[in-house]
Amino acid sequence: MQLQISNLNKTYPNGVKAIHNLNLTIQKGMFGLLGPNGAGKSSLMRTIATLQEADTGHIQFNEIDVVQDKVSLRKVLGYLPQEFGVYPRISAERLLDYLAQLKGVASKKDRQKLIDRCLEITNLKDVRKKHVSGYSGGMKQRFGIAQLLLNHPKLIIVDEPQQFLM
Ligand SMILES: Nc1ncnc2c1ncn2[C@@H]1O[C@H](COP(=O)(O)OP(=O)(O)OP(=O)(O)O)[C@@H](O)[C@H]1O
Ligand SMILES: [Mg+2]
């Protein structure tokens, strides 16, 4: 299991060079990205997560060419963004069910099993009927983990995870 990043460059239209000729190989296990505000950590993570494109460079996750084959990478990816934006006013359970459908879990029974497991891991079982919009910050973070686990990801990217580790 290996993630290999070669010669990655990204300059935003406003001229900010967020990623400058990055070469990095990450082996199986946990890898932490430390750097000051604006260093380009989130930019790199969004690029690996196929949410934005680099100007040049190559990203390979095992046999998947991430730049060429975004769909294959998304199938094995669990991603927690730094900011989630707006949370809909539906229960955690229903939102997870919706997200699981988007991730391609067609069977209602399979989804229920998966959702129960994800809620259990993230300790959200007791509040599964509550609206996510009304969750506390820490609970929202844990919901973020629950949703990223839905497809049994091989590659997990969490941006600023210290918010829920503390
Ligand atoms: N969409 C964008 N358009 C223009 N500039 C951007 C955009 N996104 C990020 N930047 C700029 O790119 C640089 C890197 O930002 P990025 O968010 O990747 O840093 P970061 O290391 O994640 O920072 P933080 O620790 O504060 O989360 C910053 O100078 C930022 O202002
Ligand atoms: Mg960031």
What does this protein structure show overall?
- The structure is a single chain.
- The mean pLDDT is 93.
- The protein has helices spanning 41-48, 70-75, 92-102, 108-121, 137-148, 162-165, and strands at residues 2-11, 17-27, 56-61, 64-65, 77-80, 155-158.
- The protein is 33% helix and 22% strand.
- α3 (92-102) packs across α4 and α4 (108-121) packs across α5 (137-148).
- The chain has 166 residues and is of the alpha+beta class.
- The radius of gyration is 17 Å and the shape is globular.
- It starts with a strand and ends with a helix.
- A 4-stranded antiparallel β-sheet has the order 2-1-3-4.
- It folds into 2 domains: 2-75, 3-Layer(aba) Sandwich (Rossmann fold), CATH 3.40.50; 92-165, no CATH class.
- It has 6 helices and 6 strands; from the N terminus they run ββαββαβαααβα.
- Bound molecules: adenosine-5'-triphosphate (ATP) and magnesium ion.
- Adenosine-5'-triphosphate is lined by residues 12, 14, 16, 18, 35, 37-43, 82.
Portion in strands: 15-25%
Ligands (ions, cofactors included): adenosine-5'-triphosphate, magnesium ion
Biggest sheet, open or closed, and with what strands and sense? Answer: 4 strands, antiparallel
The run of helices and strands is: EEHEEHEHHHEH
The CATH class of the largest domain, by name, is Alpha Beta
CATH H-tier superfamily of the largest domain: P-loop containing nucleotide triphosphate hydrolases
What's the CATH architecture of the largest domain?
A: 3-Layer(aba) Sandwich
Low-confidence stretches: none
CATH topology of the largest domain: Rossmann fold
| Termini gap | 29 Å
Main-sheet strand order equals 2-1-3-4
**Number of structurally distinct domains:** 2
How many helices in DSSP terms? 6
